[in-house]
What we know:
By secondary structure, this protein is mostly beta strands. It has strands at 3-7, 11-12, 18-25, 35-41, 48-54, 59-61, 69-74, 79-84, 93-100, 107-110, 114-118.
Amino acid sequence: QVQLQESGPGLVKPSQTLSLTCTISGGSITTNSYYWSWIRQPPGKGLEWIGYIAFSGNTYYSPSLKSRTSISRDTSKNQFTLQLSSVTPEDTAVYYCASGGSLLSACNAWGQGTLVTVSS
Length: 120
């Protein structure tokens, strides 16, 4: 059973780059047909899908965040990383990594989430 754990700073200053890592256990980031996603939930709001990196290494991002988002992977460490540049307080959210299908509704394994606050 795949288990996911997010890690990274809990506080980021405005205009800086938010960087989070998801460590995978119980599975491989190169498993065929698996997609590895980042999702966030701002305070008091619903879930927002950010993007994914596929088993093949291909990436796809939400159009609204595409210009500021990069998702990469380290197959030797079985990890994938989110970088979100030029952050503002509106990027404050609980950030989750998840795996499964390519759609939010198809994610069947989730990390516990980590709160990232953007503030000076």
